Amino acid sequence: MQIWVDADACPGVIKDMLFRVADRTGIVVTLVANRALRTPPSRHIKSVVVPQGFDVADREIVRLAQAGDLVITADIPLAADVVAKGGAALNPRGELYTADNIGQHLHMRNFMEELRGSGVETGGPPAFSQGDGRAFARELDRYVQKHKPAG
Question: Three-state SS for 68?
Answer without folding.
Answer: coil
